[in-house]
Design a protein that fits this description.
Elements lengths: L1 H18 L8 H9 L7 H13 L4 E5 L2 E5 L6 E5 L5 E4 L25 E4 L7
Parallel strand pairs: 3-5
Antiparallel strand pairs: 1-2, 3-4
Length: 128
């Protein structure tokens, strides 16, 4: 029991260590590859479960692009710029008072609790 609790804590710590402060919006697969350098026998499922745990704890947010989940340790409200050439995801910080709101929803009766906006184009390093 003790042993398994310790191992689980270590797994969670390593997963968190690999994703904390990372603004590249890695996928579960990318994080898995990094975590494996520290815990070679860990499974992708375990890494994924630990990521979900961090999301539930409010330490990470999930960004869904197409069918892929990206993990983001920046949990404050922000927007994203996605480079269509290299696929990199950049954080765009928009001031609270200059928040971009959906102009108008097609019909009444909708309550907006949050919104997500993404900008697409070419990033600085790709446009040379
Ligand atoms: Zn780019
Ligand atoms: Zn972000």
């Amino acid at each position: 029991m003790e042993k398994s609790t310790g191992r689980k804590t270590r797994q969670l710590e390593v997963v968190w260590h690999e994703v904390a402060g990372d603004n590249s919006h890695p996928t579960a697969d990318q994080i898995y590859r990094r975590v494996r350098r520290h815990i070679p026998n860990i499974s992708l499922g375990t890494v994924y479960r630990n990521l979900q745990k961090l999301v539930a704890e409010g330490k990470l947010q999930v960004l869904i692009l197409g069918r892929t989940q990206h993990f983001d340790p920046l949990v404050d409200s922000h927007q994203h710029f996605i480079c269509q050439t290299c696929g990199r995801v950049y954080d765009i910080l928009v001031g609270k008072d200059e928040e971009i709101l959906p102009a108008s929803l097609p019909q009444g009766g909708f309550t907006v609790t949050s919104h997500r906006l993404a900008f697409f184009g070419e990033c600085k390093s790709c446009s040379g």
